[in-house]
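Here's what a typical entry looks like (TIR domain-containing protein):
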Amino acid sequence: MQEHYEDQFELLIQNNTKLNVLKLNQNGIARIPSNMFLTNTVFEVLGLSNNNLSSLDFNISRLTSLKVLHLSYNAISSIDAQTKDTKEQLAAAKKSQKLLIDLSNMPYMCSCDDNHMETIKWIHKNRDTFIGHREDYMCTLQDERLYIFYNALEKTKSYCRIQKVKCDLAISLPIVCVCLLIGLVVHRVFLKIQSIRRRLRQNLLSQIEVGDFPKKFVAFLSFSSDDSELVVNTIIPRLNSELQLKTGTSRVLVCSGDRHFRPGYALGEEIIRCTEDSAVTILAVSKNFCQKEWCRREVQETYDQSKPIVLLFLERVEPDEMGRVLRHLFSRYAHASWISDSNGGHIEPDWSILCDALLDLTVGQSETRGP
């Protein structure tokens, strides 16, 4: 009847409003109509054991007099949150008499599924509400039968922790392996690049030493005539000697306008020639340098030739005091500074680092443009 005439089944006890005991056990019932018990507010005992119920989605919120609810031996594997809330509300409303529920001998599942886990927790938490033998409240975890009131919750949580670790490993291990592989490839490429750079650096040193270097100079140093005392008397001699020491040559490696501009030639032509004859350009930047027209032309010519440029600040210069090109270089590249001290001053970073940078930039210039 329940299967084929569900609408009539729903009305079966609608008019029996004074009925306080109803037993529908062992009737093969697979589903209780949602509104079947709306008019039976005086029910004290409701028996639905030994049926085929797979869910408890019928409305029992009106059964405020209910004392015992028999639901054992059905096909329920988990209990939804709304049903749990309804039963807890009924239990809380019955102050003088506890609501007793028999949910034993069900095919409960112990798994990491939220519904299954919450069902086990709820039964375990409300153990005083449930009747029947405690050994009859069991769940299945990976083909193992566990007692809900004893070890089921602990074992399920432990199992789920292990499964989470496995899942995390399954996700993270491939990522880690890929990252390691990428890191290995990058490392090998880096080592290869370093090896190539060392070889090119050695070739450069050999070329300079035997006189085969395709450029006349390693660096062209551009400066303002107002700074000539410091640059000509201190910076150029020290820079040239440090480069000679690193390259093993006695030839002049630093070009400057005061020493290498040809008398009688146009300044613009000489700037272009010295820039072309040098692998790297060093700009000795000062406030005076930023104000001189010819200094700005040297900056522009070097920039137009796409030559490596190293900024050497002789004093503090604010960005708004620089020209557009110089300001762009200042914001993009690391620079060196001349620091005045009681010993006449020093450069930061030191001469060795500056000269290594010049030689490496020379190698890079040779790689990209050739001799």
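Residues 336 and 349 are 6 Å apart (CA to CA).

More examples are in the samples folder.
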